[in-house]
Amino acid sequence: MKHRISIKYGTWPLPALAAIAVLLLAAACSGSGAKEQAMAPATQAPPATEAAPPTSAPAEKAEIPVVPIEMNDDGFKVAEVIPGGIVQFNIANAGSEPAAPSLIRIKEGHTRQELSDMVDTVNTNPGDFSTFNQLFNVASAIYGVEDLAPGATLSFYADLRTGDFALSDDNHPDRGLAYFMAHELTGKTEPETVMHIDMVDFAYTMPDVAQGKGLWEFANSGDQWHMAMVIPYNPDMTPEQVLSAFEEPEPSIPVLDGILPMSPGERVWVEVNLQPGQYEVICPLPDLAAVADGGEPMPHLLHGMQHMFTVND
Ligand SMILES: [Cu+2]
Predict the structure, then answer these.
(1) For residue 140, how far is its CA from the centre of ligand 1 (angstroms)?
(2) Where does 2-35+191-253+260-311 sit in CATH, by number?
(3) Angle (CA) 299 307 215, round 5°
(4) Which CATH class is domain 65-182?
């Protein structure tokens, strides 16, 4: 089964990319599939069996609150109040169509109505990067996927801290947003990870040798949004050629893993599944700070936001 992630003009929170009309991220099942398998929270195995101390891992897992969310053909079903701090989300698509769920933080001092209005503005002004700057004054993108099949469950961890949150289905903007709050810092346990990637403007802080299977933490310590697209490393391709490849309707470069755009200050943990080999992680997002200053939306990749790494046997 091939699984596609697309970044399209006019969808939110996934913007048009600078000079890229349509960016299709084709993720093999071995990559994104791992995130979509139904996971029973109580029985979910710690991802890194070699690295995790077997005695402590199950107990620590149990301390992470689990938040079940159901999607159906009317929208989301989620509790009005959920635990704050670090929580595990299980988003089940019980609807009849592929869904594109996104988790959004409403920034302090802003309202659900403001967010809803801004999402409408972004959706009716496709390709206008300045609207994204307005949107990100109101909200933070935390995590999302572009293709959650009917019957599949998306499982990931996020550090909510506290606040007011929204869920959107970018495949069905007409269904509107769903909302919930997190008042209390309940989840204080960090998931067991095999890899940590910190994103700044414009670089990845990460090791050169990575564990290919297990839970990866992605944090954005930068001042603007970032994403992580894991692609096979090809020393013969320039960054410009890589970006050009993603302009094609059927990109020749597979996207094997990673995360979609994430706002500053956010942290998520997602399962990855990479075979031994050489890879590169890239961020093609447009430079919104430059846009705000009247400049060009240069892709972060052309600012040097890429990192080669190896997954050993
Ligand atoms: Cu970036």
Answers:
(1) 15
(2) 2.60.40.420
(3) 110
(4) mainly beta
